[in-house]
Amino acid sequence: RSPxxxxxxxxxxxxxxxxxALQALVHPRRRSAFKKERSIMREKLKMWTIARYRxxxxxxxxxxxxxxxxxxVLHNGSRELEVNGVVAETKGRWWLWTY
Length: 99
Prior knowledge:
By secondary structure, the protein is an alpha+beta fold. The chain has helices at 3-15, 19-25, 31-36, 38-47, and strands spanning 49-61, 65-75, 80-90, 93-98.
């Protein structure tokens, strides 16, 4: 997979309100945080859709993983919200680190 494929999968799952699919796309080290914020994510899914995204600069995460910044542009029908995220690569697979 690639950073773009990971973000596209996240976007598709987000827009289809598939919270379990979103959780599966989160980096294993960040899943416990996702589980704690699950109710917050459910509220986001009710209010927003991902209109578009843009991949940004590459970066290192905790001096351990390769990563890439991503800008998610959410829309609720009347306004946009920009969310900065990061995808991380581990053993050839890309995951959402922050979202």
